[in-house]
Amino acid sequence: FAHDTTVVRPVTNMISPNTVQTAAVTQPGWSAIYDAVAPTLATIVANSDDGETTTSAMLWRSEGRDLYILTDENAITGATSVQVTMTGSGSSYRGQVLGIDPQTGVAVVEVRGIVHTSAVLGRMTDLRLAEQVAAIGAEGTVSGGGGSFSAGQVSGLYREVHVSDGPTMLGMIAISGASPPPDGSAVVDPSGAVVGLTTSVQPTDSSDTGTTYAIPIDVAQRVANQMVLGHALTHPWLGVVQADDVPSATAAQLGIPGGAYVDEVMPGSPAARLGIQTGDVITALNGSPVGSAASLLVLTDACRLDHPATLSYLERGRATTVRVDIMTQPYDVIP
């Protein structure tokens, strides 16, 4: 008490609700990230027999004067026409729905005859639990005509989400602590790279209330590329639908750099046919190390259905490498 004391009080950042809707922001640099990401977003107005729907979207890929846009498939399913408005310029264009995929919740809209900067993409495999991310929605998708910014934390990776009126969603990113963003918002990491796209899926599990779910950008890109090329959609599937990251201490004891700890295997799946069980640890797929449950999803998604893959795992501590025939994920995947 004989010395001077400095009291440091917390600083509260305020953003006008008329322009940007926001949750609490503690990560330095989010304001600059919003300014950089917002111009790579778009608002889509979809008209159908059921009326008009407005959703956010991300400018994903540009080739010459063709622009490809990613959005939530639920928002444009059944659309007879779509109008795309760029957040950066405010210009509007007529779009064409190139494809939708209820299995992953991804849709691609094409706009022809324009040149535009697309978003900077990251990787789901770089995400970590408890890492702060933000969902950024396009202007015109919230009341008042402003954009949307909502910060939260990654509370789950490789999540399985059951929905009442569609297929089970696998490999989803769960975000907690964020106010609900518009569907099709870009999920960005602290570097400003897009790592996911928010979806409108409604989980049947009431414990998921308040959680925002996002499609990993790694998965969305693979599906979107198939749509752009006009290929039939396929979803490589191993059948490990519940997995956890192996803690570093456990990995050190096992003598491995990391892995995916198997919690659940679906009956009849490739993993089940190999005899993989709860408690096994998957360490590599096709020669690439599996450092986490998220990386297992990404590596499985990159497998070719017409080529056998090699899978390495620890079976009760014993290292095993086998050949596996990756299957197409069934539409009605329900464990």
What layout of secondary structure does this protein have?
Blueprint: E1 20-21, H1 30-37, E2 41-48, E3 51-63, E4 66-72, H2 73-76, E5 81-86, E6 92-101, E7 106-112, E8 132-137, E9 147-161, E10 169-176, E11 186-188, E12 194-198, E13 212-216, H3 217-229, E14 236-237, E15 240-245, H4 248-254, E16 260-265, H5 270-274, E17 281-285, E18 288-289, H6 293-301, E19 309-315, E20 318-324, E21 327-328
Measured between the Cα atoms of the first and last residue, the distance is 63 Å
> In percent, how much strand structure appears in the residues?
35-45%
Mean pLDDT across all residues, rounded? 85
Low-confidence stretches: 5-26
Strand line-up across the major sheet:
8-9-10-13-12-11
How many β strands by DSSP? Answer: 21
Rg, Cα atoms, Å = 21 Å
The share of residues in helices is 10-25%
Structural class category: mainly beta
> Number of DSSP helices?
6
Sheet with the most strands, sense and barrel status? 6 strands, antiparallel, barrel
Please state the overall shape, judged from the principal axes of the Cα atoms: globular
Q: Give the helices and strands as they follow along the chain.
A: EHEEEHEEEEEEEEEHEEHEHEEHEEE
Describe the protein's architecture and organization:
The protein is mainly beta. Helices cover 14% and strands 39% of the residues. Strands 8-9-10-13-12-11 form a 6-stranded antiparallel barrel. The protein has a 6-stranded antiparallel β-barrel with strand order 2-3-4-7-6-5. Strands 15, 16, 17, 18, 19 and 20 form a 6-stranded antiparallel β-sheet that branches. The chain is globular. About 7% of the residues have low confidence.
